[in-house]
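Protocol step 4 of 6: structure prediction from sequence.
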Amino acid sequence: MKSFTITFFTMLLLVGMVSHNTAIAVNHDIHVGNYSFNPSTLNVDVGDVITWIWDNGSHTTTSTAVPAGASGWDAPLNSANTTFQYTVMVPGNYSYKCTPHAGMGMVGSFTAAGTTLTLTVTPSNQNVTSAAGSANYSVTSNTDWTPSSNQSWCAVSAGGSGDGTITATYDENLTTSQRIAVITVSGTGVSAQTVTLTQAGAAPSLNVSPATQNVSAIDGNATFTITCNEAWTAISDATWCTVTPSGFGDGIVTATYDANPGSAPRTAHITVSAAGVTPVEVQLIQDGTVGISEKSETTFRISPNPARDQVKISLKASTAGTAVISMVDLTGKTVLEQNVSYNHESQLDVSSFPRGYYFIVARIDNNSIIRKIILTE
């Protein structure tokens, strides 16, 4: 009984070794020169690779008969083309020749044994939404295979052997355009197969902020932030306010406005539009030049002018209260803002600002008084 058990397991081991060896592709070399192929006949297995190696002369290896379903070949072999390889994928009898020297008996043949290697991947395409996710493809095969993707946003799982599954993991599509990844599955001894993953584009979106910009009466510019995944256009309904006309995706609309010569505030309506979404309207509201008459009971004085380190603010009124005092540069940017009380002298520290021209704006209720000031060394 013990002898039988040892013999049985020895036979299993030998069968396993034979099966393992037949699954490994073998390379067969054929030397080409002296008007002959050496060796001129071979026995090979499906999946093996035959390599013709040039030794001398000028020859070809050209198929003359192949089994049904197999590919033929015709390759030069000379000092510029020293090797040619052919992978056997179909069992049967193959014959070939050297075209210029076949009449001199320069012919060869080989016989391939084994099962035809196959590789099929389904489905041919997967349609997915714009959200991130994954999709599976089924592999039917009797050989080793490896998948690859031509797009960085679509990654594929590792290869395998025999029947299996490929998982394609894809990122979110933030654009409105459809995009396609080509997945190539390469197998040992078979032609590569390709499938595709088609991802839909995202729904169009548009957001503009802030909804309102309040600016002083002097000329300048203000910016609005665009969040969008489409091409967009912007228009202003006011001739005194011009805007960035168009863009694509996230960006900035710059509104450039003239000085307001009137005493009343004025408003520019800016409309941003993009395909597939409702247009968004924002506003730029500009203060009037002098909202409080110089003859009124409220007076606004600054000193000294020119100034170097400190600016004294005197805001006198018949009632108690507070006002917002701002210092604005020539681009319209507010560089300093401070609350001051009526009928009390206050100071602005301007020592850290670049020397040059500025405007001091007093906002009282919904009106403004503007004074021009020079900062000197």
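Step 5 (inspection) to follow. The CA atoms of residues 310 and 349 lie 5 Å apart.
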